[in-house]
Design brief:
This protein is mostly helical.
Length: 401
């Protein structure tokens, strides 16, 4: 069996580190929000702020990777992540220490998240385009599954990482994650080669529109999937307290971490094992993933006990295991080789659009009923399933004999 390519390993390590940081926000920061004087809608806005910046920066960085190179853009993203995440941890620590009052802290965290999102937007587009450059059509889905899997693996490691280091302080895991991102950047500088271009980029090839009919279904799919995922995650700590009576912030954080672990383990298994063996076409992955997502949301809305919370998040993981690589592979297969950088940027930006509106909307409707975000997400997902019945998802062409 051939050795795992070093360039792919370097990409996955950086993406795993990035995924760790995303999960630590919900495990380390979210349980502290009420103690810091941040209501659910403020927490949702803080989380959404970086995604507002990402929605604009990811397409730029995707196009830039076509001319600047995949490695350079990926490196800019990692360095931006390390600095931005470290600054966020400093601000949260200042709030815990009482050095910054609630309202100025809210404004500071918003500003830091916006700056963070501006630079970190290069990570996913560069990595996705790198995989598109180095895979053929038959292996595109499994390659994209590895990219998606890294985020899931990061969410597995993130909570465990947080538990282990929280004995130092609640925010120390965030400082450590910033340090890991810096180490990943150093490894990238030293060892990641620039991939050979599949095709020269003619003038104007990077100007792929988000309204291009070839990719609109997959961009919209990302908006719905990530809007629902992040929105539900944002209110889950409050849901645990209000639905199950777990009011201690530490216990609520541990419960949330276990739920996210169940989701991440299933995601990683699907993407690292199932989809590496079963070369499922993108259309099959999308139909499977959307259906499971609707079932997960309905289970969470009913949630007769904590077991249902864990099972619902596990189904989330199964859904994401199929939908994430399915959307990226379908989008990549829908465009020409010289458009891979541009489509990677748009495919990376689309989830952030969902991450802008998902936390905000779920934070608002949560006040009407604790299960309202789950029920609303289920309706959106069912609507997406119906729409995709009329979408012709591209399948890989058979390999030449």
């Amino acid at each position: 069996m051939a050795a795992f390519p070093r360039d792919r390993l370097i990409l996955l390590v950086g993406l795993i580190t990035y995924g760790m940081g995303q999960s630590l926000l919900f495990v380390s920061f979210a349980p502290l929000a009420r103690d810091l004087g941040l209501e659910e809608w403020k927490l949702g806005l803080i989380i959404a702020a970086s995604n507002m910046a990402l929605a604009f920066s990811a397409p730029f960085w995707g196009r830039a990777s076509q001319t600047m190179g995949r490695k350079r853009v990926y490196l800019i993203g990692l360095i931006g992540y390390a600095i931005g995440y470290g600054a966020l941890a400093v601000a949260i620590q200042a709030g815990i220490a009482g050095l910054v009052a609630a309202l100025p802290l809210f404004a500071l965290l918003l500003a830091l998240r916006l700056a963070y999102g501006t630079f970190v937007g290069g990570i996913n587009p560069a990595a996705t385009a790198y995989i598109a450059d180095t895979t053929d059509e038959q292996s595109r889905s499994s390659g994209m599954a590895l990219v998606s899997m890294s985020g899931g693996l990061g969410t597995i490691i993130g909570p465990a990482f947080g538990w282990a280091l929280a004995v130092v302080s609640p925010v120390f895991p965030m400082f450590a994650a910033a340090g890991l991102a810096l180490a990943a950047a150093v490894w990238t500088v030293r060892a990641l080669p620039e991939p050979p271009r599949r095709a020269a980029a003619p003038h104007g090839s990077g100007n792929l529109s988000a309204l291009d009919g070839r990719i609109v279904p997959y961009l919209l799919g990302w908006v719905v999937v990530f809007g629902v995922f992040t929105g539900v995650q944002t209110v889950t700590v409050a849901f645990i307290a209000d639905r199950f009576g777990v009011t201690d912030s530490g216990e609520a954080g541990r419960t949330m971490a276990l739920a996210m672990l169940s989701m991440a383990f299933v995601t990683v298994f699907v993407q690292a094992v199932v989809l590496q063996k079963w070369k499922a076409p993108p259309g099959t992955m999308l139909r499977t993933g959307f259906s499971v997502m609707a079932a997960a949301l309905l289970l969470l809305a009913l949630a007769p006990g904590l077991w249902a919370l864990y099972l619902g998040y596990g189904l989330f993981g199964l859904s994401f295991g199929f939908t994430a690589p399915g959307l990226n592979a379908a989008g990549s297969l829908s465009v020409r080789p010289e458009e891979q950088g541009a489509v990677a940027g748009l495919l990376s930006a689309a989830p952030t659009v969902g991450m802008i509106f998902g936390p905000l909307l779920c934070g608002i409707v949560y006040s009407a009923a604790p299960n309202a975000p789950m029920l609303g997400g289920a309706l959106l997902t069912v609507a997406l399933i119906v729409w995709f019945l009329f979408v012709k998802v591209p399948d890989p062409r058979p390999a030449a004999a």
